[in-house]
What does this fold into?
Amino acid sequence: MEFIPAPKKGFVPVRFIEGVLSRYSGKELLVGYGDKKPLVRRKLILFLRKIVATAKQNRLKNLDINWKDLRALASKDVSDLALGKLAGEAFVMADYEHVAYKEKPREGFSFIETIAVRNTPEEVKRGGFWVGEQIALEVNECRSLSNMPGGDMTPKILAAAAKKAVKGTKAKIKVLGRKEMTKLGMGAVLGIAKGSSEEPQFIVMEYWGAAKKDKPVVLIGKGVTFDTGGLQVKPGDSMLGMHMDMSGGAAVIHAVALAAKLKVKANVVGLIPAVENSPSGEAVRPGDILKSLSGKTIEILHTDAEGRVILADALTYSKRYNPQVVVDVATLTGAALVALGTQASGLMSNNQKFEDLLRQLGEESGDYVWPMPLWEEYDAMVKGTFGDVPNISTDGNSRDGGVIAGGKFLEVFAKDIGCPWAHLDIAPRMTANQNEFLAKGAAGTPVRLLFALVEYYAKAN
Ligand code: BES
Ligand code: MN
Ligand code: ZN
It folds into this structure.
């Protein structure tokens, strides 16, 4: 998709109309914005995507939109630059579809070719549309990685994808294999990886865009390339979709790549422990005790609670960077989906200000997050019996408060880092829902939020 300043012959004018219905008259594309103007940010994002989704349904290729119409529709709280950015993001995200495994239909795929946005102020073209487009292209790359079937997305392939994502930028990348991890003592990652014939990889990305002395933002992403559940194999239908269990890792890869491509003046480190969680004669067993990089032992009480275990080593590894803040991103629990539905990721932090910041940036970026408590009262969830920390709650019914149990486990390992830390349980937002005008499959969350966070620290520097 390309943005140009003026329409050419054959471009279809887009008109915004009251009501929810949308249609193509043969001359114009009429898109309903609802029954109330102006549109606040949340509504605006959806409406902007709806324009492209409707155009695609009608197999239109070239659209003619008037900036003044957009401006008149959007709330005054949204600045010109912000509106341009939101539009760039929304148009490009709504155009994406996962077609890598599909034969091209005779009439071609229904992607948009060009959008002309007439009367766009000069500063909005580059500072708004262009930036939004770059962000969305990276979000879409993240979605492509997540959408890749488990058979085609192994830890090694994920590591190769990370290298490709930062190619040509200043970002550096290093990948630790089984040998290096053994030397370091990363028993948590290695333990979960044991059941699979795929070698685990620990992907380390560094982008130094500010002075070396400035503490980096460390982003950690769960990279389980397929989650069978391990020996406690997932039942029935619940394994389908688990090729996306590396979505946190994919988001971190592309957030780092985006910061490097846009030359943001901040230091960013991305850490992605990548494993396949498989059952086999060598797989980790319930009751096994793993020695983590921190020195603490982890009691495996359930082989399907693997994400937190590999993240433990990554949290400990982050300490060597003396980070400004650490955020981990993981499709950690089905319980998060039960609690929040498909609209927001779970947010847990050991620092109130940092939690507030992430909530605000989530709201602005469109990657919505919602807080859950990590009160001391929940400490009993992570009391080990024969090891230091159990990987599922040992306080009563292990299903109760499943999201918080995940957060509490990670908090134990985050404590030692000595900086604000937050955990995003993105399981609720792993796939796009029916009402957000995005193609089926991975939602690409929270690339936009992580990038906003990196930009926030660039400005603070
Ligand atoms: N990857 C899953 C969580 C998940 C489930 C993500 C559905 C997205 C959609 C995770 O590794 C897992 O299996 N969690 C268990 C934890 C339980 C054993 C404590 C779960 O949610 O059932
Ligand atoms: Mn699991
Ligand atoms: Zn998992």
